Amino acid sequence: MMILPAYYFILFAVVSSFLAAAAAWTPSQPSSSAAAAAATAASAASLSKLQPAAATKIISPTCSNGSSSLSSRTEFLRQTISTSTAILAITTSSLLFQPAAAANAAPPFAIMAEELGYFPVTDETSGATVMVPAKIKRHSTDQAIALAKYLQSTKSTMYGAFWCPHCIRQKELFGMEAFKYVNYVECDIRGYKSQSATCFEKGVDGFPSWKFGNGKQQGGEMELMDIAKISGFLDKKGMNAFDANLEFGVPPLGSSGESCQ
């Protein structure tokens, strides 16, 4: 709605220009209908450009031989104001509705995050373009959060890559609240906060790869129940500490043990 005052100013300028011209207007001698038509066309062209500052001279229309041309300065001004108002209304309406359509359009990064699972950003420190994984959508269960906290306390680590669909699913299995406790290492050099050298030193050759605090290792995506078993969570907390039936809304991608190379 902030656009309107500017366009009312334009309307004011248009009308003011015609008022100034009309103030100096005097009836002219009858002329031919061809001259009257040319004058009317010139006025219409001036209005269509919406450039009041350039309208330094206006040819006043005259009537001749009973034609429908304007017969008085008052009528001339009335039609001028009516035309200007109509032009302003159409222009303002189109400008007001265009931003609404643009606002509904999905930004490119949002599309990339939805389709690919990651999107590019500029690293503030190095200025380089790096890839950031899309945000996790699924909410965590209480038992998933408890498992993630256990993994953190035992210094267990998940190695992955931003582009790997199995890594994306593994994160979704934990959920947004739980995964923030998981020690995650980005192995692709193009990824945000990449630790590719660490992955090379650890001999990581597939994603995701797990190295648990109890010394056990496992490659490929895993259901949370399997992680709870291998990591020692169930041994520590009890066999009833995790119920796989409580995990719902899991994305249907891949199967246990699959990985990206």
From TrEMBL:
UniProt lineage: Eukaryota, Sar, Stramenopiles, Ochrophyta, Bacillariophyta
Full protein name: Thioredoxin domain-containing protein
Signal peptide bounds: 1-24
Organism: Discostella pseudostelligera
InterPro entries registered for this protein in UniProt: Thioredoxin-like_sf
Keywords linked to the UniProt accession: Signal
